[in-house]
Design brief:
With about 375 residues, the protein is of the alpha/beta class. It folds into 2 domains: about 5-55 and about 330-340 and about 360-375, Urease, subunit C, domain 1 (Roll); about 55-320, TIM Barrel (Alpha-Beta Barrel). The protein has helices spanning about 75-85, 100-105, 145-155, 175-190, 205-210, 235-245, 260-270, 290-295, 305-310, 315-320; strands at about 5-15, 20-30, 30-35, 45-50, 55, 60-65, 85-90, 115-120, 125-130, 135, 160-165, 195, 215-220, 250, 335-350, 355-370, 375. The two termini are about 35 Å apart. Bound molecules: zinc ion. The site of zinc ion has 5 residues, from loops.
């Protein structure tokens, strides 16, 4: 068989198959064709990636990529090129009132993959900038349950879940009520729900208590107030019960939702996140979130090993999305792969409060393959 593209001699880390070793990865007709040692020379294009790491295409489960349609949107293709994210999951930038524009003008135009959680609020996250900040869940008149069910049913290819934001900033006087509406929409559509929390009310415990197996809590390692830990360093019982029930805990770093103190406490308590995501948007792409590999790198000094970090950005989000053909290099999977490097040095990594942890290793994005073709080709080794 002549492969379309063959990546050779990289350290391949694919937690979905338990692979961590120097191997080759081959692509054919847009899919992964083979993974193994010494796949030969029969390929239209061969790239030697000695010294680099190849993983399944990174999935950033929490991004905002409705560029131009919402003030917080960033450009998904540019983000894929620089950060090696092959699938950007937009989490509620659009609601039923403005989703068709997101689909036509962004999702259908992009060469990188975009999937969407549809916001239950009619126009999604419409008032989010440095100068104008209006929580889209403040006004219950915007909660558009029927419209959300209709729009979700119109595009099952791209809409993979329902989004809602509750908290002092996002829902203000409406408190936890938008979550009640969103859960009904999720139930009616059969889709998982991703729920954001910020400062209380509602409390972290009140929110996780309402989530069902397969639902996602994002901003799970946020700093006080509304942190998942008690003062004595114990994980709150509602949080443990939610994990046991099958609720998925997602980082969603963003500009306000990752604290070193919380992260250290959770890791010490034996409660790593299920999914690592960046919550990249216009207000945090220049720091403190930057991108997915920076967020992943923060888990190195926290003691998570590299394959587990990779799992939290590949196989785990693919499961949360219910898209097993993503997040894996199993033959027949979508032909997506990310090229990374792990460098040693002294790297200052800041949280949302400005606290810095210095790490002696950091993950860098080098390039990515999407649909079996180079989308961003790495530079020469040692650049
Ligand atoms: Zn977000």
């Amino acid at each position: 068989m002549t492969f379309d593209l063959l990546l050779r001699n990289a350290r391949v880390i694919d937690p979905s198959q338990g692979i961590d070793g120097v191997q080759d990865v081959a692509f054919q007709d847009g899919k992964v064709a083979a993974v193994g040692e010494g796949l030969g020379n029969d390929a239209r294009e061969i790239s030697d990636l000695s010294g680099r790491i190849v993983t399944p295409g990174l999935i950033d489960l929490h991004t905002h990529v409705y560029w131009g349609g919402t003030s917080l949107g960033i450009d998904a293709e540019a983000f894929a090129r620089t950060s090696a994210v092959t699938t950007a999951v937009d989490t509620g930038s659009a609601g039923p009132g403005n989703y068709p524009g997101f689909r036509r003008h962004v999702i259908e135009q992009a060469g990188s993959r975009i999937l969407a959680y549809l916001h239950v609020s009619f126009a999604g996250i419409f008032g989010f900038s440095r100068s104008v900040m209006v929580g889209e869940s403040h006004d219950m008149r915007l909660m558009a349950a029927r419209e959300a069910v209709e729009v979700a049913a119109s595009d099952p290819e791209n809409i993979i879940g329902i989004k809602v934001r509750v908290g002092h900033h996002a829902s203000g006087p409406s408190g936890i009520d938008p979550l009640i509406i969103a859960l009904q929409v999720a139930d009616e559509t059969g889709l998982p729900l991703m729920c954001h929390i910020d400062e209380p009310p509602p409390s972290y415990e009140a929110v996780v208590d309402m989530l069902r197996p397969g639902d996602i809590l994002t901003h799970c390692f946020r700093p006080f107030p509304n942190a998942p830990l008690s003062r004595d360093g114990m994980v709150k019982s509602a949080v443990i019960a939610a994990r046991e029930r099958g609720v998925i805990f997602d980082i969603g770093h963003g500009m306000g939702s990752f604290g070193w103190k919380t992260a250290r406490g959770m890791m010490a308590a034996g409660f790593p996140p299920d999914v690592i995501s960046s919550d990249v948007h216009a207000l945090c792409i220049d720091g403190p979130a930057y991108d997915l590999v920076t967020t992943m790198s923060k888990f190195l000094p926290l003691g998570m090993d590299l394959p587990e970090i990779v799992r939290a950005a590949t196989e785990a989000p693919a499961q949360a999305l219910r898209r097993p053909q993503l997040g894996s290099l199993r033959p027949g999977s979508e032909g997506d792969a990310s090229v990374l490097s792990l460098r040693s040095g002294s790297f200052d990594l800041e949280d949302v409060l400005g606290e810095v942890t210095t790490s002696d290793q950091r993950i860098f994005a080098e390039g990515c393959v999407i649909g079996g073709k180079w989308f961003a080709k790495p530079g020469a080794t040692g650049d």
